[in-house]
Design a protein that fits this description.
- This protein is α+β, with helices and mostly antiparallel strands and about 425 residues long.
- The protein is built from ten helices and 20 strands.
- Strand 16 and strand 17 form a beta hairpin.
- It starts with a strand and ends in a 16-residue tail after the last helix.
């Protein structure tokens, strides 16, 4: 990633770029891989970069981030950009709320505009049962000091008039649970902002540097093998969303994770018509979440494809279900052309909650299993995981995310994929 010198005109910058560089300067490229580091972070996605940033800023450690391909090439650049903290279970809603509060100040903290937009997240209720579930979730959130508002159909019409909640529908809208501080963040800006800030603190970000193995001695890790040679490290963190099963295989550990695809798509740009994020769980089809980007395109996604895969290929049946939900919410969007589709590869744990813990060795750590919630948790995950790696002790905020919970039965059964995952 490069950035222009601000005082030059746009025309001058264009001419310089066409001429082969000119005023442009690299922000994190060109670093040389050193022989040894305090911490090696494997994976230059949102969680890896955020953890590296906090390891350097908060703990003063010498850090390298090793990336198989490019910064931001994985899930941090392949998501629908939604941030929220409207969870039911205390272990989850406190953690996601910590992240949402950090989103509010992240542009200032990184000195880089990540375009946080608190446009509100509207979880629609399509039955009396959904309204009861929404009230239960909302009450839990308010007791924890987290903002939310229950809206009936009339209040929803005032808040989101483009939805026309009172319109006759096959599945009538009864109301919604609304989190006003929820919204969106520009995903690639998050990767670039963390990479830029981490580099300024002395972190080496090395792209095209695949990690091929872990070297150990006397029961601890001593470093990692890479395509660019051996790198010594006092501690190693794996943050490779979508590829965690491969890390488990490398270390000889069977992890309670499957990798699934999550489809998303965006339409051609249209005039502003939607000022919030809509989430719609429709009987018989699954889930659709819908928002309008700053460029004007309608961004939408839904449930998983339903089978393990690493392909990132589109599935027509899933895309059709998502579009049906979008049209059911906003019939006025019918006829808008879809111009781009993508699939993210999600590490799905058995209970829908992440794993932040040691992995086999005392000085090897894992940040994985984020299911649907990986992007929205980047700021909190980076700070908490850095503290665990630096001190060896997990902060209270992430103690419930230990790997051992799958052996002891202390599950956090909240898949986080829709507005009301826990039914009464």
């Amino acid at each position: 990633m490069t950035g222009p010198t601000p005082h030059y005109s746009a025309l001058a910058l264009l001419r310089a770029r066409l001429a082969g560089g000119g005023f442009w300067r690299p922000l994190w490229t060109g670093r040389l891989l050193k022989q040894a580091y305090d911490v090696v972070v494997v994976g230059a996605g949102g969680h890896g970069l955020a953890t590296a940033f906090h390891l350097a800023r908060d703990h003063g450690l010498k850090v390298a981030v090793l990336e198989k391909r490019l910064v931001g090439y994985g899930n941090v650049g392949r998501n629908t950009t939604i941030v929220r903290s409207n969870y039911l279970l205390p272990e989850n809603h406190y953690f996601y709320e910590d992240s949402l509060r950090r989103w509010e100040t992240l542009s200032k903290d990184l000195n880089y505009n990540v375009m946080y937009s608190p446009r509100g997240v509207v979880d629609l209720a399509l039955s009396d049962g959904d309204m009861i579930g929404a009230a239960r979730r909302g009450n839990a959130m308010r007791l924890a000091g987290i903002d939310c508002e229950m809206m009936d159909r009339a209040a929803l019409d005032r808040f989101c008039p483009e939805l026309v909640a009172s319109r006759d529908r096959r599945f009538p809208i009864f109301g919604a649970l609304v989190q006003h501080r929820g919204g969106t963040v520009r995903h690639d800006a998050v990767a670039w902002g963390y990479a830029r800030a981490a580099t300024a603190l002395g972190v080496d970000i090395i792209e095209d540097c695949e990690v091929t193995g872990l070297r150990t001695a006397a029961g601890v890790a001593t470093g990692v093998e890479t395509v660019k040679g051996y790198v010594q490290a006092n501690r190693v963190l794996f943050a490779t969303a979508g590829h965690t099963g491969m890390i488990g295989t490398m270390l000889g550990v069977t992890l309670p994770i499957e990798t699934h695809l999550l489809q998303a798509m965006v339409t051609e740009p249209i005039k502003p018509m939607l000022n919030t994020v809509l989430v719609y769980v429709h009987p018989g089809h699954g889930e659709t979440y819908l928002l309008q980007s700053d460029k004007g395109g309608l961004v939408m996604g839904g449930y998983l494809d339903g089978f393990p895969s690493y392909t990132r290929e589109g599935q027509w049946s899933r895309m059709e279900d998502v579009v049906q939900g979008a049209i059911a919410m906003l019939p006025q969007a019918a006829g808008v052309k879809i111009v781009r589709q993508w699939a993210g590869i999600n590490d799905m744990t058995m209970d829908g909650s992440p794993i932040i813990d040691r992995l086999r060795y005392d000085n090897v750590f894992l940040n994985a299993g984020w299911c649907y919630g990986g992007f929205k948790t980047i700021p909190a995950s980076g700070a908490a995981c850095a503290k665990l790696v630096a001190s060896g002790t997990a902060p209270d905020l992430i103690k419930a995310y230990r790997l051992s919970r799958f052996e002891t039965g202390h599950m956090l059964d909240e898949r986080g994929g829709g507005p009301f995952p826990v039914r009464l």
